[in-house]
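Please fill in the sequence for the structure shown.

STRUCTURE ENCODING:
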């Protein structure tokens, strides 16, 4: 059984709940396969409608169908969607995304800012009232902009409050703004990972260069090192072929030594059966340490 070092910000009364939630989403491996479903706000409709996107994806319930049938650790989305569909998908472990913003305002025009929509206490009350399996909260931090100080202060409070309620705290960490010369720079990504550690996050979701090269994965080890005991999960990024995606995830886990992945459009843009099959292959790498060849065979079936 996985040994869990409960954060010191988790009070004794909430420790059992925190450990239960952590074990559930990591399947006792310490790794996390997060199904990211917050793009209805972040990317508006561009991620859900198009020539290479299955028609099923237009309906928000498609996300919940995938989350309920696929082998994932948790499904991250906004509280409003959980409110509308949660009663029909009670078995799904949910991470409530506390802040979100659209992509309508260009970074060239304005440094990004995204304050919380509701408090962690609101989430805790909703959990008790709805009796849904809410295991954690998520929050996006934008480093390098003029609002950095306010965002970091809010993030720190959210992580503390999450732990007080026995919830896992996940940070989406994006150095982004007019003062960030290259948000894909490994050193900048590593710097953001270190900030997430200073905030006390349990997991931090960061950008990963999807080159498919082992050298990239080796260089990415400095990001993992910078995060210390905060665990790195990589963003899924733009849609790739299943082979490209699985190759990169295999390198992330087994070469870079990250602790998981957060997949959005690379799952939900497929029809339900294909999405569930791809999730099985991804979970094979993250949770079961399958070699790449075995996961590719899952996709061939």
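FILLED IN BY: designer on duty
SEQUENCE:
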């Amino acid at each position: 059984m996985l040994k869990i070092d409960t954060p010191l910000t988790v009070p004794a009364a909430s420790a059992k709940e925190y450990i239960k939630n952590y074990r559930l989403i990591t399947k006792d491996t310490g790794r996390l396969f997060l199904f990211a479903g917050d793009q209805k706000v972040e990317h508006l409709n561009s991620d859900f409608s198009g020539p290479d996107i299955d028609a099923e994806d237009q309906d928000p319930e498609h996300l919940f169908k995938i989350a309920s049938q696929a082998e994932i650790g948790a499904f991250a989305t906004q509280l409003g969607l959980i409110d509308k569909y949660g009663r029909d998908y009670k078995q799904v472990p949910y991470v409530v995304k506390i802040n979100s913003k659209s992509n309508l305002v260009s970074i060239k025009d304005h440094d990004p800012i995204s304050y919380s929509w509701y408090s962690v206490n609101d989430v805790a009350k909703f959990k008790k009232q709805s009796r849904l399996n809410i295991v954690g909260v998520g929050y996006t931090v934008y480093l390098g902009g003029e609002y950095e100080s306010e965002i970091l202060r809010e993030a720190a409070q959210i992580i503390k409050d999450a732990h007080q309620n026995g919830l896992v705290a996940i940070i989406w960490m994006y150095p982004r703004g007019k003062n960030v010369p290259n948000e894909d720079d490994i050193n900048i990504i590593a710097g953001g990972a270190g900030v997430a550690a200073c905030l006390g996050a349990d997991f931090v979701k960061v950008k990963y260069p999807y080159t498919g090269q082992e050298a990239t994965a080796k260089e990415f080890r400095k990001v993992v090192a910078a995060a210390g005991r905060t665990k790195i999960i990589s963003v899924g990024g733009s849609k790739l072929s299943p082979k490209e995606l699985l190759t990169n995830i295999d390198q992330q886990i087994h070469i870079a030594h990250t602790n998981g992945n957060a997949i959005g459009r690379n799952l939900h843009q497929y029809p339900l059966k294909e999405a569930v099959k791809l999730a099985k292959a991804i979970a094979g790498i993250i949770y079961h340490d399958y070699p790449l060849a075995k996961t590719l065979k899952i996709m061939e079936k």
